[in-house]
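Hi C.,

You asked whether I'd gotten around to modeling the 306-residue construct. I have! Everything is below, sequence then structure, no commentary in between.
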Amino acid sequence: MDPKHLVYLAEIINLGSLSRAARRLNVGQPTLSRIVKVIEDKVGSPVLRRGRYGVTPTVIGERLASQGREIAESAERAASSIDHWKKGLTGEVRLSVGPMLAATIMRGFFENALKQKWPYSIEVVAEFAARAIEALNSAKLDAAILPSRLNLHQENLSQDLLFSDRLAIFAGADSALARADKRYSISDVAELPWIETAAISGIHGSMREIMMQNGVDVQLHRLRFSGDVMMALQLIANSDALCILPERQLEKYALAHTIKKLDVDIALPKRDISFWTTKASRDTPEIRHLHAQLISHLQRIDLTPD
């Protein structure tokens, strides 16, 4: 099957319309219709369902479109590599950063990166730990900044500790609990409303599982945020809700004046952060340089291993 046909099919499905896809691809709509017919003849069944409001894929149509998207992405990356080479850049590093890190300490790192002329470009992907590990293993990423010691198919991966951290319980700085500035027992806070973030639950289990390990059954969370961290932080700052978050990241670098760690008599897990790469790419010049720049940035903001 012609790979370009799969790319065209993916664009039709992405846009939900042959006419819009024809304009985007700069080809005639009859040409796209013929290509769809060629694909369907090869498959032996329809790849599109035509409806009043456009087209949607059949099961096999979506599978083929997925392949087309991968082909298009590979072609785009090849064009980008050529462009980088012409501009004097030696390569590109595909780096994954979790939502919590992206919202806190990594913003300053990327601000510094913009001011410096590094000999390579960086593609930043905001991704959770499990997906980042999968992407590293499948060579879709070159490096990732993730929690340490994840038991997620690490055989071909390498990690270097960047800084030490620990989970803690946070509340809004203006909440009654935070203003009291005293030590609480876990029973004092167990019945309060809780917010959960997937950035935490994907590592140590859900918020409730973490608390259950300490012999406490907290009230079920009313809200759970997946993907976005800033909404959760802002909600904590403006409500009486509590949340388990990484201590060193949150106290210093994300809304430090609006949220506050509570002193609660409960032991929460460590959440150290490491620089992950594949063993094959660990010693490439770009990865070594990026790692060194990360270490330098963390030293400037006083985030180091214990």
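If it helps when you're writing up: The mean pLDDT is 84.

Thanks,
B.
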